[in-house]
Amino acid sequence: MKNNNKITYKKAYNLLEEAFKKAGYKSYQLLHDLHNIIFTNQNRKGTLSSKETKKLFLVLWLLEQDFPIEYITHKAYFFGNLFYIEYPLYIPNPFTERIVEKTLNTIDNLSEPHSIIDIGTGTGAIIVSILKELKKPEKHEFIATDISKHALKIAQTNATRLLPYKRQQLLKLHHAFVAYKINTSLSAYLDEKAIYQASDKEIKRLLSLLEPILPTHTNVIIITNKPYLSLSVKYPTSVKFQDQKALYSNKQFDNTLKRYIHFLKNKGYKVTLIMETRRTINPPSSKIVTYRY
Ligand SMILES: C[S@@+](CC[C@H](N)C(=O)[O-])C[C@H]1O[C@@H](n2cnc3c(N)ncnc32)[C@H](O)[C@@H]1O
User: Fold this and answer.
1) Pocket of ligand 1 from Cβ distances under 6 Å
2) Range of the domain at 35
3) CA-CA 20 to 30 A from 288: which of 39, 49, 127, 171?
4) Residue of the CA atom closest to atom 15 of ligand 1
């Protein structure tokens, strides 16, 4: 780029603020975060370097496309904490904070140790917030699963960043591949009739798949903000950038959850399910429900 085509910082700030507001953002903290990502030179005087110019135009373009700002800043606020996030993981939603509140109220009144299992943990927003807030988490067990290995990696990053070491150690993260297995190979075992047809060796093999997600305590609380958007509704453009498996209601998730609860119940566990579920399709709204099995 020729010298006379160079952009001054003043012009760049104005362009960015304009695009930022046009995309519907208001927080000056967020705008400040964008400045720090784009303008990396210590001395922000005169004109932008070519690297800064490239970054500026990329961010302007992304904002114009309604690309969620959380993926640019790698920051998402949830329950008063700053979670690290990467594209295309589900962006924690303030509505889901009600699951955290509900679970905290439930756990605070518990004298017995419980196994708390977050299915579809995403960035770990729910389980990490619970682990951070609980007065005495030590007597409970905390398990989180997700079908996305990327999500599990980021959930681990958030646990490490936000929790004291002892609390980090309480969290076990598992790839939901095991849950997939419940849905396929293990379905025969879960079907009461089929169990008599499977050999001991086969049952042992299938059960071993479940071991990582077999709760230690008899009392189990399953929490989930399951994918529940409907394909028939038009959502804001920014939704299209998020992992579709994380967003749209799918039978695979629902069946796995049902089978897992059924399996635990048959093994003598007492299960409470706390989840966010769709209330109305259009306009989209949700509610928190609790079921006891
Ligand atoms: C709506 S997001 C919720 C994420 C996080 N709990 C939150 O509230 O921010 C649903 C999550 O479920 C995961 N998921 C989808 N299908 C799944 C399955 N069969 N087993 C486990 N996790 C699944 C997605 O990868 C995604 O992270």
Assistant:
1) 90, 92, 96, 119-123, 125-126, 145-148, 151, 176, 179, 225, 227, 245-246, 252-253, 256
2) 3-65
3) 171
4) 246
Decide if 71 is inside a domain. no
Instruction: Enumerate long-range contacts of 162-167, CB under 8 Å, 24 or more apart.
Output: 162/81, 162/83, 162/128, 162/132, 163/128, 163/131, 163/132, 166/138, 167/131, 167/132, 167/137
Q: Whole-model pTM?
A: 0.87
Tell whether 104 and 223 lie within a shared domain. Answer: yes
pLDDT tens digits for range 221-236: 999 998 877 777 778 8
How many domains are there within the chain?
2
Q: Which residue CA neighbors atom 12 of ligand 1 most closely?
A: 120
Atom 2 of ligand 1, nearest CA residue: 246
